[in-house]
Amino acid sequence: MIGRLFLDHPRSLGMGWAGHGTGAVMIGLRMIGGGVACLVHAVVPALFTETAGRTVSGLHDYMMRRKADAPDPHAWPDYEI
Q1: pTM given for the model
Q2: For labeling, which of 21, 37, 63, 71 is most exposed (least CB within 10 Å)?
């Protein structure tokens, strides 16, 4: 049960639990930041006019680099989270 919950998925990507968790935290924080900027932009349109788009593009680039650097890139999903 522990392996299935915590280890199977990271191992299927050729990663350890900590490395996978670090990547997930980084992606999550960037998503939250972009989302907050988008919400502020909805109220004050002059603010954060390009932040959401840059966040999405940057996250895509980050995830594609992680996939390319993986031990077996073909085992990775197109979007890791």
Answers
A1: 0.78
A2: 71
Give the residue from 78, 32, 25, 77 showing the smallest Cα distance to 55. 32
Q: Which residues contact 73 (CB under 8 A, 6 or more apart)?
A: 67
Amino acid letter for position 43: V
Tokens of residue 51, six digits: 């932040």
Assess whether pLDDT exceeds 90 at residue 46.
Answer: yes
Q: Where are the domains of the chain?
A: 1-75
Q: Which two tokens stand for residue 69?
A: 């650097």
What is the DSSP secondary-structure string of 38-68? HHHHHHSTTSSTTHHHHHHHHHHHHHHHHHH
Torsion of Cα atoms, 34 then 35 then 38 then 39, to 10°? -150
